[in-house]
Amino acid sequence: MVKQERAARTRRALVRAAAEVFARDGFVLASLTSISKMAGVSNGALHFHFASKQALARAVEEEAAAVLRAIGASARAGGSRPLQRLIDATHALMERLERDVVVRAGFELGSGPPRRDGSVDLRGQWQGWVEEVLKDAERDGILAPGVSAADASVTVVAATVGFEQLGAEDPAWTSARTLVQFWDLLLPRLAAAEILGGLQAGGTTPAAASRQE
Amino acid sequence: MVKQERAARTRRALVRAAAEVFARDGFVLASLTSISKMAGVSNGALHFHFASKQALARAVEEEAAAVLRAIGASARAGGSRPLQRLIDATHALMERLERDVVVRAGFELGSGPPRRDGSVDLRGQWQGWVEEVLKDAERDGILAPGVSAADASVTVVAATVGFEQLGAEDPAWTSARTLVQFWDLLLPRLAAAEILGGLQAGGTTPAAASRQE
User: Fold this and answer.
1) Which residue numbers of A have CB closer than 8 Å to B's CBs?
2) CATH 1.10.1040.10 assigned to A1-51
3) Which of A14, A171, B117, B211 is most buried (CB neighbours < 10 A)?
4) In whole angstroms, what is the distance from residue A169 CA to residue A167 CA?
């Protein structure tokens, strides 16, 4: 392995270990020694890559933000209608929250007191994406009569943040089953009658399908 | 003032000050000195009432739990139908989260890592209440056809936990306006057609009305 590859691999191991320790102990109590131990590297190697605990937290959040952007981009690339894109993105997000400690820790680092200075606003990023896709749906005329993109955004953002929070204690909240219950309830109110039959509450991506097996 | 009254007053001041400091600094960073200073009492007086920071957190959570029980009981005493009771209770909860730091800190103390041992499960208590009132609605036959109490509970609990979490950063999320947007969206799907017209998304209690002025 060339030196550069090894450095990149060490950095990735440190970010993942930091996420594990932040998720377990919280940012304030997390120790750099636990992080370097979990990553299997020396304290010196940690300090070569990251100047502080703050820098590690920032790296965790940035990796989570990149995952979130990829989820949005992939839902758009699917080419389906805005409401299906929204459903697919929520399944992708819950699936990542369930199995990827970096995404979970990224969201947790930005919530609750004390709020860290300069932390990445993952919930704000998610909210912005949800609002945009619902505005697309409104523009396409596929929202039910009398339903505004704004009202729908408030409900979808609050519920998904709730799933994320409750899921930290009990993974049933981020399961495909719970999300399908939510969409089964909401879709008949949200979608115009003529497109409702074509929407799949369980998502249309292979990842969403595999979660429901 | 007799001695007993003064002791009760000091205890109340300490619980409120603890809530302020927990909400601002988080449990881990909160210092007993900040709490006694904010309450305007000596460290000795603090230790006379509370053996530890843990005991103070427990007292904050227990006061918040009592408020939550009172919200549930008062919604029941209103005598209205289960769905209106649910709407009224969500308005009462958001209103308390907005103006009462003890309730806000109580919810925050139970969330996020590190989870404190033996903390009161306020979200679990809220979830239990929501499930019960929606089961009443199901039993009374006032849910829309095809809607189960379980699906409705998942959505209402997740959204209200989301409002609570997002409201800690931006009070717009716990405002009456946001909650009315949520109920306006959800009710036509949730309630049987024959009772929908009688439901008020803005709540029927004087407190709910005053929030919307």
Assistant:
1) 22-26, 28-29, 108, 111-115, 123, 147, 150-152, 154-155, 157-163, 165-166, 168-169, 173, 178, 181-182, 184-186, 188-190
2) no
3) A14
4) 5
